[in-house]
Amino acid sequence: MSGIISAAVMMAIKDLALAARTTIDGFMQGLNKSNIKGAGLEFSQYRSYQPGDDLRWLDWKMYARSDRYYIRESETETSISVRLLVDASGSMGHKDGAFSKMDYARYLAASLAWLANLQGDAIGLYAFQHGELFALPSRKDPQHLNRIFYQLERLQPAGHFTTPVAYNSIFTNSRQRELLIFISDLYQTHNEIMPLLESLSAYRHEVVVLHLMADNELNMDFAGYTTLQDLETGETMAVSSNTTQEHKDTVQAWIEAQRKYLLEKNISYRLMRTSEPVEKALTDFLRQRNKNTA
To answer: At what angle do helices 142-154 and 101-119 cross, to 10 degrees?
Structure first.
C-alpha cells in the first residue's frame, strides 16, 4: 500500500492489527528512500536483492507481504526490550473532530509494537489510569504481540494518572538494554509524570517521550463553545476572544518548558499532532533519534 495515509482514515480502520500493519508497511516503503540506522526500532535501508547477495540477510517477512526479495542492510544486529508506556488518564479522551488523543495513542503504540516485533525486539505494555498501573511485561513472541493489541483495543481514557505507589513494576533490574517510549499529553494534576520519567532515565535506559497534542488545543480553536472542562479534574474555564491568544501563548510556553526540562534530563522529546499521519511521525521521530544517538 503506497502513499501516506491520513490520521483520520487510519482511525476508521477498526482492526488494530490491520491498522498497525498498514501503517508500518507505508513506513518501511519510506525507509527505502531514507537512511535510518541503529538498534531498537531503527532500521537501515532495504534494497532489492541482487545475484550474489548473502541469503542470510534476505528479509522473508518483506517477501511475504510484497512478493519481492529485499536485503536488509543494518549497521547493528541487536535486539532490545521495548516498553510502551501509555497514558490512559481522562485528559487523553480529548477530541479534535471524530477521534481522540487516546485513539491516536492506541494506533501509535500498536504501530510501534508491530515495528519492534519485526525487529525481533521484546515488547511490553504499561498503561497509566485510575491511579493504577496495568503491566504486560516484555516478551518476544507473536502471541504476546496479539495480547498487546487486545489490551490496547480495550484501553479507554478515564480517571487520574497513576500514583507513584504503583510504579514499582516499571522498574526492573534487567541488564538487557531497554527503550522506554512514553506516549502522553503530559497533563498532570499533582506532578506525577516528570518525576517518573526522571527516575526511569536514571536507570540508564533510553527514555523517549512522544507528546500528543490536538490541533484545537494548540490553536485554541473551539468555535461554538463558551466553556471548556478539564477531563480529569472536572474544572471549567470560560472561552472568549480575549482569552484565546493568551491561552495559545500559555500553551506554547508550557510545551517549550516540558521540552527543555526533558532534554536537560537526557530524555528524548517529540511533539506529535494528532492530525499528523502516524507513519510520517514515526519516520521523523526515528530520524531525529538517529541524530541524537549518533
So the answer is: 180
Amino acid (one-letter) located at 294: A
Is position 1 within any domain?
A: no
In tens, the pLDDT along 187-217 reads: 988 888 999 999 888 887 889 999 999 998 8
Q: How far is CA 270 from the centre of its chain?
A: 10
Asked if 293 and 207 touch (Cβ cutoff 8 Å), the reply is no
C-alpha closest to that of 102 among 121, 137, 66, 127 = 127
Same domain, 269 and 164: yes
Name the grid cell of 119. 525487529
| AA letter at 292 | N
27 DSSP assignment: H
CB-based contacts of 5, cutoff 8 Å, min separation 6: 22, 23, 26, 277, 279
Residue 14 shares a structural domain with residue 116: no
The verdict on residue 158 lying in a domain is yes
Q: Do 37 and 114 fall into the same domain?
A: no
Asked, for residue 2, whether it belongs to a domain, the answer is no
pTM above 0.85, yes or no: no
